Amino acid sequence: MMNNNSKLKVFSGRANVPLGEKIAQCLGDSLGKITLQNFPDGEFLARIDEDVRGRDVFVVQPTCPPVNENIMELLIILDSLKRASAGRVTAVIPYYGYARQDRKDVGRVPISAKLVADILTSAGANRILALDLHAAQIQGFFDIPVDHLHAGPVINDYIRGLNIPIEDFVVLAPDEGSIKRSLRHQKKLGGAIAIVDKRRSSATDTKQANLIGASLKGKTAVIFDDMISTAGSVVGAAATAMENGAKDVYACATHGVLCGDAIPKLREGPLKQVVITDSIPLTPEKQLPKIKVLSVAPLLADAIKRIHFNESVSRLFE
To answer: pLDDT, tens digit, for every residue of 197-225?
Structure first.
């Protein structure tokens, strides 16, 4: 008979409580009891309100905006669990902040993605469960096991459900960096492929240029990316597609960061629909009729179950 100590328990920080609740629901449980509060000076306190000694614990906390607050809260929860003698602690990070600072592209800059990995490990994480990291090599920044999930199957199922005729379907890569991802989706969904040759003028400004590959005349173009941040890339790629005769353009991304003036850009831009997941919560002021949110809770719950029972996580994608 399984004793209480060998059972898994899911806790959630405040970054995305609805996702934590959905994951716990998929596992047939409720979220672990935890008190999270802010002192008047802005410091965090995390108190675990149930016995976790020897238990297999999973903490759900995307490090989305406000990034530094959510990272700090996660670190403090990890420390609380470690000091409460949890058997194993897995940080479930559906969106990994600082992931774009993954290399020194100019002199005298940090590799913040590696720094965050080190701090998470020091705080008490025994393993990491992440979803669509900005760069797959970030897994190597950790000295603990990392299970890297992909929301591709969830997004592909939704696109299949739109029943776009295969002869009208074109996968559109918004820049040369997303060609590999676009090819993976095209392999699963079929259709043709086209690439927007994008010229970047600064870290925040991009200028779209030429279209390479399949003709878009009268076709439905679907853009796949890992995240939509300021929405400049997807809106620019959609505009290029429409200029080249596309009938409709959809944009799909795992992470709807949607910062800066992303919402007005998406509202006014030529995209028919924007498909994202609930890896990051979509706050009321960001909700638009054209934004469709898919849940990754069943996928994360399945992975948590497999980790708990020491089963293969990569089987999920076979």
So the answer is: 866 666 666 565 689 999 999 999 999 99
Would you tell me how many other CB atoms lie within 10 Å of the CB of residue 72?
A: 18
Are residues 275 and 251 in contact, defined by beta-carbon separation less than 8 angstroms? Answer: yes
| DSSP designation for 120 | H
The residue written with tokens 């025994």 in the block is 126
Residues 6 or more apart from 294 whose CB is under 8 A from it? 151, 154, 155, 158, 275, 276, 277, 278
Give tens-digit pLDDT for 218-262: 999 999 999 999 999 999 999 999 999 999 999 999 999 999 999
| Residues forming the active site | 198
Rounded Cα distance, 122 and 134, in Å: 23
Q: Which helix (H) or strand (E) holds 69?
A: helix 67-83
Burial class of 187 by CB neighbour count within 10 A (0 to 12, 13 to 18, 19+)? exposed
- Cite the beta strand spans of the chain per DSSP E: 8-12, 34-38, 44-48, 56-60, 88-93, 127-131, 146-149, 169-173, 192-200, 206-213, 220-228, 248-256, 273-277, 291-294
**Lookup: tokens for 286:** 């960001």
pLDDT of residue 205: 64
Distance CA 250, CA 4 (A): 47
Which residues have C-beta within 8 Å of that of residue 51, sequence separation ≥ 6? 4
- Read out DSSP for 143-196? SS-EEEE--HHHHHHHHHHT---GGGEEEEESSGGGHHHHHHHHHHH-SEEEEE
Q: For the whole prediction, is pTM greater than 0.70?
A: yes
Q: Is it true that the peptide bond before 66 is cis, omega within 30 degrees of 0?
A: yes
In this structure, which amino acid lies at residue 148? Answer: H
